[in-house]
Amino acid sequence: MVDDSPKKSQKIISGDGRELLVLIAEDEFLIKADLEDVVRDAGLKNLALSNADEAILALEEDSSRFCALITDIKMPGETDGWDLARRARELQPNMPVIYMTGDSAKNWAAQGVPGSVLLQKPFVHAQLVTALTTLLNEATMSGAGP
Q1: Do the Cβ atoms of 68 and 47 come closer than 8 Å?
Q2: pLDDT tens per residue across span 52-77
Q3: By C-alpha distance, which of 38, 142, 10 is closest to 100?
Q4: Is the pTM here over 0.85, yes or no?
């Protein structure tokens, strides 16, 4: 991911003022830390985990606390980002999903959940914030989101 802003971009705010929490699943420490910063700078809280297995456990504990999922596709463990997103959608059918990948984009049409966004690594911060904003707005407009 490339930093493209001189601190910082737009803020995402819930219409009803409640705290929005994004679930991040990324195994590379530096990328995960960068994602946390971008999400925080956009005005959102986050829970960042190192693999999809941990993220599924967090979703199964209480999926309603999350407003969106940002996930890498290839991670260590038994579950990949494709499976994580499918489980997230089983628990929250309209949850916004953003996939990130360096090499799995070709599988998105077959493996990705409907209405998701795929960002090819490396991408700029604005791409992530725009994707997140767009998906959250769509969820809100459909009456099913934050």
Answers
A1: no
A2: 999 999 999 999 999 999 999 999 99
A3: 38
A4: yes
Cα-trace Rg, the chain: 14
Of the candidates 70, 67, 76, which has an alpha carbon nearest to the alpha carbon of residue 118?
70
Contact 56/30 with Cβ under 8 angstroms?
no
Cis peptide before 8 (omega within 30 of 0): yes
Of residues 81, 88, 84, 86, the one with CA closest to residue 119: 81
9, two tokens: 């971009």
Give 113-117's long-range contacts (Cβ < 8 A, gap of 24+): 113/85, 113/86, 113/88, 113/89, 116/85
| Full DSSP string of 4-31 | -SSS-------TT-PPPEEEEE-SSHHH
